[in-house]
Each structure stands twice: as structure tokens, then as C-alpha cells.
Amino acid sequence: MSTTVTRPATSGRAPAAPRRRPRTFGRRAGRATTYLALVLASLVTLVPLVVIAMASLKTGAEFRAEGPFDPPRTWLNPDNFVRAFTDGKMLRAFGNTAIILVVSVAGTVLIGSMVAYAIDRFRFRMRGAVLGAFLLAALVPGVTTQVATFQVVERLGVFNSMAAPILLFTGTDIVSIYIFLQFMRSIPHDLDEAATLEGANRFTIYWRIILPLLKPAIATVVIVKGVAIYNEFYIPFLYMSSRELGVISTSLFRFQGPFSAEWEVISAGVVIVILPTLVVFLLLQRWFYNGMTAGAVK
């Protein structure tokens, strides 16, 4: 007994692929403009860094005889880095910067989160005036208050000491308070009420419930504030005139004195200053992007 298999009739041609929508000239021009802008922005950012990196590997004779885009004769020339690190007192500058950065960021997180907790969870007279004062302080340019700020710092007896920049970095960060305030408004008040019924006081609620829930805001403040303090030049230069108190930015600026004609050594100092921030950013970039995005949509 034989069986007959009936196959569907085909014309012998492959099934037709879905037709693509023809790209218009406007879409192609828009995409080309986007790529061109990205390439230009990358060049503007990377070319100065590449020039400085190549200059840091050149000898003095190479730097004076060759152009800025000429590569160094040897890519393994640590002499400029050794001179910049030892003669420029970079180790001491890194230590001073680390002390100021850690204390200032810790103080900013504690004070900023406490102020935001008090404003969001307590109802008191003049609450609107306090918020308005914070907004007004954020809008006033810092340069216009420098004379009064300098007199206050001098009266407190902290001029030419690390306490001066620590106090200024910790006590004037209105932006951090607003970041904590925006995150805290998303924490339900039911948690406070439940903790109160369990016998917790206000400080216990803040320390054991509110502060752990503010981890995304803390990460955002630590990264933004840390980068700002690391790059700050004006406040350390004005309030810490002693060379023993030099931080990264002021120590790099003072390279113009002993190394005024040795730009290859100055370039090596710039590379030494850039490397820590580059490494920290690569390690924490996920936290940075998440924190900035979360803070933007709340």
C-alpha cells in the first residue's frame, strides 16, 4: 500500500524579504550630523589629553625640538614622573587632599541628610522661609560673598589650616540638601509611624531607617561632591597659603615656579593628577549614572 504526500505548490522562489522603508534624506542627514557631533566632541576631549600624555614621556630636548603631535622616541620614560612626584611634593599633596575630601564629604552627607530629614518630616513655623533662604543662598554667586567669608574664617582662627576649606566645603552645599530632600520625599511616612509605635525616637528613625534608604542619594552626593573638592583650586589657594598645606590643584599650580621652562615635567604632573579621578570614575561609573538619573526623575 502506497501513500501519497501532497506538497503545497510553490513557484520555486524564496519567500520575499520584508521590504525596508526607504530612508529619507532628512533621516540620513540627521544621523550623519549626530555622528559628526560625537566625533568632534570626542576629539575636543581626547586630543589635549593625548598631547599631554605624549609630552610627559619626552625628554627636554625632544619637547623643544619636536611638535606637540610628534610621538616620543621611547614610550617608557618615567624620569618626568619621578621628578614631578618627588620634587613637586605630590605625595604630601595627595595626603592633604584625601584628608580634606574624606572629612568634607562625610560632613556634607551627615549635615545634608539631617537638614533634609528635619525639613521633610517636621512641621514648624517659618518652614517655607527656611526653604526660600536655601533657594536664595543657592542663587547668590559665591564670589560676591568672599570678603565676608574671609573675615569670618579669620575671626574663627582657622585661616591657613585644613579646617578652613573643610568648614567651607561642608557648610555651603545647598545642592546636596536638595538632592537628599528629593530622595526623602519618596520614603513613605508609614515607616516613621511604625517605628514610633515600636518605641523608636526621632534620631533612631533617622539613623536606622531613613539613612540606609538614602544610599542612592548618598552615592550621588559622594561622587559629585568628591569630584568638585578634588578639582577645587580657589578655596585651598586662598585659605591655605602655606606650601606644607598644598593640595593637588595648588601643588600643580606651583609647578610654574621650579619647573617654569620644563613643560614635560609639568605634563607628567598633570597626568599624575588625572589618573586617580580616571580610575575612580571607571570603578564607580555605574553608581554615578544611576544616581544622576534617579535624582533627575524624582
Number of strands: 0
Shape verdict: globular
Averaged pLDDT: 82
CATH hierarchy class name of the domain at 90-244 = Mainly Alpha
The biggest beta sheet, please?
Answer: none
Fill in the CATH topology of the domain at 90-244. MetI-like fold
**CATH superfamily membership of the domain at 90-244:** MetI-like
**What percent strand?**
under 5%
Please give the radius of gyration in angstroms.
Answer: 29 Å
Keywords:
298 residues, MetI-like fold, 69% helix, disordered N terminus
What does this structure look like?
It is found in: Cell membrane. The chain is mainly alpha-helical. Among the domains are: 32-76, no CATH class; 90-244, MetI-like (MetI-like fold), CATH 1.10.3720. 69% of the residues lie in helices and 0% in strands. The chain is built from 14 helices and no strands.
Question: What's the topology here?
Answer:
Elements: H1 25-56, H2 60-65, H3 79-87, H4 90-121, H5 127-139, H6 146-155, H7 163-171, H8 174-184, H9 190-197, H10 202-213, H11 215-231, H12 234-239, H13 248-253, H14 263-297
